[in-house]
User: Which sequence fits this backbone?
């Protein structure tokens, strides 16, 4: 399709941070030190659920080199939380907090004390000397048990531990089931997933030259981190500064607080630099995970392949605090019916409080869990109906003007049919007058190896959903005399490894009409920028691009009026969204979406249960490519991360305690595990309100991979496995149950 002429958009511009990162010169939080800095260590809870009766610091304070120990009574406003401030910064007696029961620990990652000492080793030793006396409270670790009458209650304001309950009631279910000629049912289970970013949590706090409490840390939204800090410390916004250096990955794992508030607390009181750095074990034990979700689904279709009725119940384990569960499960609720227009829908989705590790944002944000069930059901319907799985999707996918499960039309720019077609055509399918049909799969000579193919699709929001305030600011400065010699753009969007800062610079160059080399970006510092919103929800390119474009237009108008320098600030606000109606679920949930489809080929060893991912074809509508290599990198990275989620990453939690907090026992894909081929099929169907037509796309390639692999395993072996990860043990057990692979 034709594209507007651009200066640099669409070109493979080298990343502006590439050289420093590959040479090791670029500092990450753990690399930064200041003269005279102190060291911090945290004392985490020894119980899954207990009241902290007392904390005795005397032995720890007597250790030479210990500077100070902080407990709950030292936190001016002892509460925090991204969506709801429902978690104490430090749990214990004497707390000043609006959170009821701030003296209660509700999981092992709750913190009860902070030690600051002259060295890291002294701080680590002192943490062990703190004597905490607990009054044990009954715990609950199973979400469905937590919902029952009489279960231990974690918070007084959430009866039966139900943090959120979303309903969708669309159409006439009795009529839908009467129309259905084929019905399939399934129960799907997803597990925890650890973010496993390369750089564990670390940070450095100090008082800057203007007297501000300053924290250098890795996160996903500098202004939100700033707000959490100044709220907990009882300070004004201008008294707190947050700076991000290079960030070694995030994936949603840095949306919630880790070391930010406690670093600021220590610096505020001590007026000296303080540093903390977690080990890999601490990182796995003490930051949130992807939600485990159980989904029970029942789908009905006519013989000619029209899906007419869906019922489903989804139950997600929130852990003891909200984090982003209310939003994640809201998204799961929206995606559990897949990218299909279905007339009759009855859904109930719950986020449930337990004493397990908290769960929160992770790439896909509830949609991967929903997709496992939706695509599993579609593939099972295809088998029962005798209709090819691609053909069945082609008969049901969203079209322009389709009505969502929530009763309102999709935003304009729906490209799901084109995405499904492109993926099928570029992979293992062909189309004739009778529709889509897969080509035969060549089997290996080794009888222990079986090959199969699978297909799945998905969709996901771009930007914040369900009425959550969405905005992004940018400032563009044009410097020069008779011609523009330099462009400075201030945009706070986080560069977490995805290449966003390079994309911002490309969009700025294009918006102003100058070569890329004339653009300088200032970001990652609350003292230098206005809020951008978070690096999440596949929103940064979309939101920052619109903000930059608006600021550039204003600056160019000023330049034309001979204002030199021309400095303009612009706030972009997209069309509003609305929350679920509590009874029917009706809403206008999102202002834009991204669309994806994937086909895979796997090889299953029926003796060992190992799944080898041979080929992945991922078709993604990105609206307008800003930087092709960055898009390709996002697709390949998402595929490998989703591969880990689907077949390898098995985080084990027993009574709220993680039992494998090491990368030697929690396995993630290495270079030897990645697919032999990942084919990125990049489509450009312009989003009507995206900057230059661009859509967000970073999360979308994650969504369909697990159900596509499950379908390919079934194609290879004839066995459906509806629980991920598909570890060798789980695969072998399922095959043996069907008498496959018995020696």
Assistant:
């Amino acid at each position: 399709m034709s594209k507007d002429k651009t200066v640099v958009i669409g070109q493979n511009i080298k990343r502006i941070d590439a050289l420093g990162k590959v040479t090791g010169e670029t500092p990450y939080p753990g690399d930064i030190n200041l003269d005279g800095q102190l060291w911090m260590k945290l004392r985490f809870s020894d119980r899954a659920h207990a009241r902290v009766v007392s904390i005795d610091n005397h032995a720890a304070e007597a250790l030479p080199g210990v500077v100070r120990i902080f407990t709950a009574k030292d936190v001016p406003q002892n509460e925090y939380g991204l969506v709801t401030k429902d978690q104490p910064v430090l749990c214990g007696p004497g707390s000043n907090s609006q959170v009821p029961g701030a003296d209660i620990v509700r999981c092992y990652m709750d913190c009860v004390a902070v030690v600051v000492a002259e060295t890291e080793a002294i701080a680590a030793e002192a943490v062990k000397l703190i004597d905490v006396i607990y009054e044990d409270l009954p715990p609950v670790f199973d979400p469905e048990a937590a919902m029952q009458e009489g279960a231990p209650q974690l918070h007084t304001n959430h009866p039966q531990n139900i943090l959120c309950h979303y309903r969708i009631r669309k159409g006439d279910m009795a009529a839908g089931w009467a129309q259905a000629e084929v019905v399939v049912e399934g129960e799907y289970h997803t597990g925890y997933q650890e973010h496993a970013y390369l750089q564990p949590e670390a940070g450095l706090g100090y008082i800057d030259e203007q007297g501000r409490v300053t924290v250098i840390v890795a996160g996903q939204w500098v202004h939100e981190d700033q707000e959490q800090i100044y709220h907990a410390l009882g300070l004004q916004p201008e008294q707190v500064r947050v700076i991000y250096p290079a960030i070694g990955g995030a994936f949603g794992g840095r949306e919630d607080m880790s070391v930010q508030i406690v670093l600021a607390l220590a610096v505020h009181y001590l007026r000296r630099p303080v540093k903390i750095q977690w080990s890999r074990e601490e990182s796995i034990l003490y930051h949130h995970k992807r939600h485990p979700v159980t989904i029970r689904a029942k789908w009905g279709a006519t013989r000619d392949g029209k899906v007419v009725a869906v019922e489903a119940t989804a139950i997600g384990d929130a852990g003891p605090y909200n984090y982003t569960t209310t939003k994640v499960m809201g998204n799961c609720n929206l995606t559990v019916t897949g990218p299909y227009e279905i007339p009759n829908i009855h859904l109930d989705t719950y986020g449930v409080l337990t004493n397990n590790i908290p769960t929160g944002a992770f790439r896909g944000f509830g949609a991967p869990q929903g997709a496992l069930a939706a695509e599993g059901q579609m593939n099972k319907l295809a088998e029962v109906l005798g209709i090819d799985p691609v053909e069945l999707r082609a008969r049901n996918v969203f079209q322009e003007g389709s009505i969502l499960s929530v009763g309102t039309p999709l935003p304009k720019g729906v490209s799901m049919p084109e995405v499904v077609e492109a993926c099928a055509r570029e992979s293992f399918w062909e189309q004739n007058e009778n529709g889509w049909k897969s080509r035969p799969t060549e089997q290996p000579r080794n009888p222990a190896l079986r090959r199969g193919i699978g297909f799945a699709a998905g969709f996901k929001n771009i930007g914040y959903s369900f009425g959550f305030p969405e905005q992004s600011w940018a400032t563009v400065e044009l410097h020069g005399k008779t011609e523009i010699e330099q462009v400075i753009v201030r945009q706070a969007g986080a560069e977490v490894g995805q290449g966003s800062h390079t994309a911002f610079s490309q969009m700025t160059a294009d918006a102003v009409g100058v070569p890329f080399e004339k653009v300088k970006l200032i970001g990652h510092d609350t003292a230098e920028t206005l809020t951008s919103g978070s690096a999440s929800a596949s929103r940064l390119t979309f939101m920052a691009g619109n903000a930059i474009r608006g600021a550039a237009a204003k600056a160019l108008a000023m330049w034309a009026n001979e204002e030199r320098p021309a400095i303009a600030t612009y706030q972009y606000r997209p069309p509003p969204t609305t929350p679920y109606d509590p009874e029917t679920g009706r809403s206008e949930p999102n202002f834009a979406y991204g669309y994806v489809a994937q086909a895979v080929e796997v090889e299953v060893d029926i003796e060992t249960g190992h799944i080898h991912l041979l080929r992945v074809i991922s078709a993604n509508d990105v609206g307008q490519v800003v930087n092709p290599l960055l898009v390709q990198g996002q697709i390949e990275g998402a595929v490998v991360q989703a591969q880990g989620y689907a077949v390898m990453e098995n985080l084990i939690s027993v009574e709220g305690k993680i039992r494998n907090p090491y990368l030697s026992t929690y396995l993630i894909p290495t270079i030897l595990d990645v697919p032999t081929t990942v084919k990125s099929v990049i489509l450009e169907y312009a989003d009507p309100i995206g900057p230059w037509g661009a859509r967000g796309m970073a999360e979308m390639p994650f969504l369909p991979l697990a159900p596509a692999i499950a379908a390919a395993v079934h194609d290879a072996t004839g066995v459906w496995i509806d629980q991920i990860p598909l570890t060798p043990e789980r695969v072998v057990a399922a095959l043996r149950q069907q008498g496959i692979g018995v020696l």
